[in-house]
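Late entry, evening session. Most of the bench is empty. Finally got around to the prediction I had been postponing all week. Sequence below, unchanged from the version circulated by S.P.
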Amino acid sequence: MLLEFRTKNFKSFQDELIFSLTPAPKQKGLDYSLLKEKNGSKEYKGLSSAVIYGPNASGKTNIIGAMDVLKSIILRGHIRNEDKKSKSNAAASTLELIPNSADKSKTPVDFSIKFTDSGLMFEYKLSLDLGSFLEEGYNRKVLSEVLRVNEKLIFSRNPSLDLGDTNLIRKYAINGFEENENSVRNLAKKNLIDDELFLMNGFKAMFSLKLVNIITNWLEDKFMVFCRADALQARPSTSKKDTIYINTTINDAARIFGINSNALGYHSSDEDSEPKLYSILDNKGIVQADSFESFGTIRFVNMFPIVIDALLSGGTLVIDEFDASLHPMALMSIVNIFHNDDLNTQNAQLIFNTHNPIFLNSNLFRRDEIKFVERDEETFSSIHYSLSDFGTSGEKAVRQGGDYMKNYFISQYGAIKDVDFTSVFEKLLETRREL
């Protein structure tokens, strides 16, 4: 369960971004949106969803992109560029794209993530010297790196290495750790590499492979980040040559959504080729789905299995352009499933950005689940805040049960831009008349 994500000097977020999925104080109503996990005598609470609003180019996608970048850096264990470029998020593999373009002083790029899994609460922080924007070949360095588990310091690198509470490590330690703890500590301190993460290298090899596996398994399997709508590409786990593979659950959902064909299935004509989605048309055979179904149907079929995976595994699903080509009622149903305590039994979470005002509804989202992003017109720097940050009294008061949609469109909450193309067409027509 994701509790908090932070970043600083990441693209348009020059100042620190704090994206919290921890319930804000004094928020009443919609208690079914709250998730709870016991960790010994302590209970952690999280929000089951968050919806992000803001004008185009305000920085909404940069929040999701920053999550994806941190995930990518941790899993590969270093801050060197990847040869394999990311199609959906170039900054994940080309790190000189990360620093704020207006910053000329080589301000560090900071990340922090806090989450629970396997009965443990993890907090991991990174501060990176990546140089300036588009500075290729820069000698990158990990400036600081901190891991806390259950709020206890495990290690701190700043830049030298300090090791904290090893009692927790012992339970998850590699074989022979206790007998050789002193020598392992000394060896670790002498073998830090500037552009590599201690977590994924020295700590993993010499201290606790098991703890690192819990972290990486959560990142790989449960932190499900999609930076672009077209990055959602579900595929069947098995598909034999010349055999139609039909997933009953997906077909049932597709019928409710409104497919044009009898059914949808995956078919592969070659054992080495990637299965393609087909529409099944009674006795008339099959045709490729993208030539028969609407774009919205194709996107729904690609997205729905990922929604299922998140709900069954207790994953945190983060999607850019969640509402692209999908009817609001279908989206509303998915949101309600994440809010349903009887269905969301594994503490799954849904985070998405949108332009659709239908979600600005006090009966659907808590105030701390509604997030905003706006960008300063002079500095081009983004800021992020929640509806719960507004007080309950005064000119910009936000009260439980208020008309959030109306107030948003009259710019009471900010994060909205007046868009009027009239002057462009007036100028165009005037130029044509002069000709």
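Two things to note before I forget:
The radius of gyration is 24 Å.
Residues 295-313 form the longest helix (19 residues).
Will write this up properly tomorrow.
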